[in-house]
Amino acid sequence: MIGSTFVASEALKHFFILPGAITHDENEALDRYLSSLPILSEGEVDRKQQFAFARPVYDGVEVTARAEAAAGDPIWVGERFVRGVSVPVQLMEALGRANRAVSEIPYAEVGVDPPEAPLSSVYVDWYELGSFFVPHTDRVGYGPVVAGLSVGKGVITMRWSDGGVVHDVVIEPRSLYLFCGPIRYEPWTHSVIEVTDRRFGITMRSRGAGHSQREESP
Ligand SMILES: O=C(O)CCC(=O)C(=O)O
After folding, report:
1. Is 174 strand, coil or helix?
2. Taking the complete model, does pTM exceed 0.90, yes or no?
């Protein structure tokens, strides 16, 4: 499947890109829907009840480079994971598409165990020309495979690094990417270093193993 469907980067063998994963019409419909949502301040959004964008706050400082919306299970709210508002119907098709792609990863070939849980957590990042996402590693409370769908007009450059080697990957609109294996965890980080136009990054994750009920309690 990987030979015909995915173009894996030579250097990053655990990073897969599926160009044209959604149609132009689907891209436009998602762009229209996501662009219609409000961008609020973090304190105004109850992520268990509402799907809306807000500028995240880290260490008391509001991030101005992008805005973020979240839904599904689990999502991170400050210091714990919770079950967020239901994934909006407009995003269900994208989630289904990503889950199908996850099932097509040749796990044995790349030496990774298949995930136990489906993708069920959805974050959307709203980027404009000049936006960025700082280097980070996704929380271990999420599962071993992460998927991202690029919606809108903007092309991004995503940077991967293990602290030494750096790989830049250009991601076009309508592309779905997936990553797993060593690059999913520290010391690897990824970041978005360039954005050419409005773009929504729909990031889909699963519950990680060992994710306890306790973490979900308020
Ligand atoms: O916008 C993207 O595709 C990347 C988002 C990301 O790195 C994240 O949500 O952790």
Report:
1. coil
2. yes
